[in-house]
Amino acid sequence: MIIDQIVSGSNPEQYLTYVPSLIINTYIVTPNTNLILIGRYGDNEYPLCIQYPNTYYFASTFIKPPFSIAFGEMLHKVFESSASMIRPGYIRLEDIHPLVDPVNLVEIAVILKNKKIPYMISVIPVYTNPETGKQYHFSDSPKLLKALKYMQNNGGSIVLHGYTHQFRLSETGEGSSG
């Protein structure tokens, strides 16, 4: 089955629309089945998540967006917890490597701290110059390390984005993580 919309079974006004994706067909729908999520494609509707009676079925072989959002919503039903109507977003400062200006980072951190906004700092510990092959490490930039410590102590969470985050001789931050 192909769907391009995920609809809440209890509230048809809540839905996600995205590129067409495959789901696994289920024939378990009976009068005792609770349709938690419905997949739509045009005028066709298919069960995406069902409950019968204490068993749950999710008709996808993968859990990545947009299915991960729908799956997360479904877990509120499974664990009988109230769903938050707030859709949290996260700020991620991308590709922070040893040559990034620490002054700019601290300026951003101060703004986020004052607004009480948590954020992630995705770091690349080694910057490799694609022309010379010279490598720069965080230890080569004590001011940047101090800025990262400040950020971490004031609402930032540091996450590794790749040791060099480059593919072959591409510029650091432009290739796949490495």
Which structural category fits the helices and strands?
alpha+beta
SS summary, helix count: 3
Q: Helicity range of the residues?
A: 10-25%
Radius of gyration: 23 Å
Which range does the strand content fall in?
Answer: 25-35%
Low-confidence stretches: none
Can you give keywords for this protein?
178 residues, alpha+beta, 2 domains, three-stranded parallel beta sheet, 3 helices, 21% helix, 33% strand, elongated
Explain what this protein looks like in three dimensions:
This protein has 178 residues and is an alpha+beta fold. It has 2 domains: 77 residues, no CATH class; 70 residues, no CATH class. Strands 2-1-3-4-5 form a 5-stranded antiparallel sheet, covered by helices on one side. α2 runs parallel beside α3. It is elongated, with a radius of gyration of 23 Å. It starts with a strand and ends in an 18-residue tail after the last strand. The model has no long low-confidence stretch (mean pLDDT 82).
Give a brief description:
The chain folds into 2 domains: 2-78, no CATH class; 91-160, no CATH class.
Topology:
Layout: E1 2-8, E2 15-22, E3 34-41, E4 44-52, E5 55-58, H1 67-78, E6 91-96, H2 102-114, E7 119-123, E8 126-128, E9 135-137, H3 142-153, E10 156-160
Parallel strand pairs: 6-7, 7-10
Antiparallel strand pairs: 1-2, 1-3, 3-4, 4-5, 8-9
Pfam family, one: DUF2334
